[in-house]
Design a protein that fits this description.
The protein is of the alpha/beta class. It has two domains: 3-27 and 93-224, Rossmann fold; 30-86, DNA polymerase, domain 1, CATH 1.10.150. It is built from ten helices and six strands. The chain has helices at 3-10, 30-46, 50-64, 67-75, 79-86, 98-106, 119-129, 152-161, 176-185, 215-224, and strands at residues 14-17, 110-114, 137-139, 169-173, 188-191, 210-211. A six-stranded parallel beta sheet has the order 3-2-1-4-5-6, sandwiched between helices. Helix 7 (119-129) links the parallel strand 2 (110-114) and strand 3 (137-139). Helix 2 packs across helix 3 (50-64), helix 3 (50-64) packs across helix 4 (67-75) and helix 6 (98-106) runs parallel beside helix 10. The longest helix is centred in the N-terminal third of the chain and has 17 residues, at 30-46.
């Protein structure tokens, strides 16, 4: 990336960051813990054995986008019980990142978290990373009316509610498909391809403007020019 491109990015009004597997390395593998708890919740709530619960989760996810959405639609689930249970995980693998904290401090513009997780989970992760003072808002799955990325509705809600100008914004994500709506709206997109299975080259990459292996190092380059 040349200096003119860096200068253009530094002048962006708003930076929108995904949380899990974006601000911390995928090697932390928090999702494995969440998947175990999702499975346990479905087994207990619906009275299914392990195989039945796996089949049910796959069906709900395929039909509704997420297990949670499917449970809400087909079983009238109260979502907070599910979300609290699934995100009650051990954050020990996440370590403080002083360099990321310094880079975010030096990065001009508004900073927002946009996550399919919850505000309490995001707050815990950001505190562990040592970067919790940088974000003006955490736009979570509750704020999205339980509609996950990459559905269009949460992007529209985020933009409208927080008066974001897409063409003056940058979105940073670890999942290729979640960047597609952002690019269509005019945002500059940054992929951190650090979650196995979501960076396969079989996916359409036309909407990915920048791909970075190390987010902290890349942000340092942006702010230093």
């Amino acid at each position: 990336m040349n200096s003119s491109e860096l200068g253009h990015l530094r002048r962006r009004e708003c930076w929108i960051f995904d949380l899990d597997n974006t601000l911390y390395p995928a090697e932390c593998d928090l999702f494995s813990q969440m998947h175990v708890r999702m499975q346990s919740f479905v087994e207990t709530t619906l009275g299914l054995d392990e195989a039945g619960a796996q089949e049910k989760r796959q069906y709900l996810s395929n039909k509704y986008g997420t297990t949670l959405r499917g449970l809400m639609c087909e079983h009238d689930l109260e979502p907070h019980a599910y979300l609290d249970f699934v995100h009650d995980i051990d954050l020990a693998p996440v370590v403080q990142n002083d360099r990321l904290n310094e880079a975010l401090s030096a990065l001009p513009g508004r900073k927002i978290i946009f996550t399919n997780a919850t505000v309490p989970h995001a707050e815990r992760v950001l505190e562990k990373l040592g970067v919790d003072g940088h974000f003006e808002v955490i736009f979570d799955i509750v704020a999205s009316s339980y509609r996950p990325k990459p559905e269009l509705l949460p992007y529209e809600e985020l933009i409208a509610r927080h008066r974001i100008q897409p063409r003056e914004s940058v979105m940073v994500e670890d999942m290729v498909k979640n960047l597609a709506p952002a690019a269509a709206m005019g945002m500059t997109t940054v992929l951190v391809p650090n979650w196995v299975g979501h960076d396969a080259r079989g996916e359409d990459y036309d909407h990915v403007h920048h791909e970075v292996e190390d987010l902290t190092k890349w942000l340092e380059t942006v702010v230093e020019g």
